[in-house]
Amino acid sequence: MNLHGLRLFHAIVRYGGVTRAAEELNISQPAVSSQVKKFERELGIQLFASEGRRLVLTDAGMQLTGYAERLFMLEQDVENFVQDFRAGKKGLIRLTATYLPSNFLLPGWIARFKQMHEDVELVVSTTNTRMAFDQLLRYEAEIAVYGGGGITHSGIHWDELFEDEMWFVVHPDHPYAGKEMELREMVAEPFIMREEGSATRERLVSLCTTNNLAAPRIALQFNGLNETISAVKAGYGANFISSLVVKEDVQQGRLARVFVRGVQLKNTVAVCTRAGEVLSPAAQHLVELIRQEASVMK
């Protein structure tokens, strides 16, 4: 199909004649006439008939007009989409996040992003650290928002947002509540933690290994962050967790801190992307908003 010829044919129909079509397209009138006649020969179909000095559409020309209009409307839709995509107004962002940012940070950040970019589609998955990085490297996600220890991972670019403290917490009636304890005493308690692959769980195990202590006993294991906190609130065991998650519970007396001598660990919240790659425009806008929102938390 000669799309140039179809475009000239459509212009003649749209503007009501060869002269006006030539003016609108900034092409000479003889050139338009000759190109349309060539287009008719290529198709083997007569599209126009002469009524005196006036061109009228044949039945075939009328039917082709409908197809041409739909085609060029679709072409305009494609051009509009490309323009909007380049401007970051449209697109699809696949985002994966670990439990800390997914539960306590992303809902507010994404809501503000959608208020400004309503036509950008967001698909968010929540998983542990290991799976989040796997999804990023397998191109199942464009962005990963991570909360945990300041680890490194080959092929991943880190954009650190802020840090918060890691706390040991127990029920307010626990014998250690509000007290200063030795690490060996603390890790002798039963712990409620997330599944293997959780960065926080791995940091607790690493802390014990560094201090020549046995790994803590994981008495209860959940795949969700809120469930681990709820179990401690119910009166059983201890948790090692980001202060961002439990600060309000501690302030309102639903949980209590245990101050462990010599332990002052930080939790890093970061935006991660594949190293050496340029984000889509919409994803760039999202990362910029996340940086702005996170800057007030430093």
UniProtKB/TrEMBL annotation:
GO MF assignments: DNA binding
Keywords: DNA-binding, Transcription, Transcription regulation
Pfam families: HTH_1, LysR_substrate
Domain HTH lysR-type: start-end pairs: 1-58
InterPro entries: LysR_HTH_N (IPR000847), LysR_subst-bd (IPR005119), WH-like_DNA-bd_sf (IPR036388), WH_DNA-bd_sf (IPR036390)
UniProt similarity note: Belongs to the LysR transcriptional regulatory family.
Protein name: DNA-binding transcriptional LysR family regulator
Organism: Paenibacillus pabuli
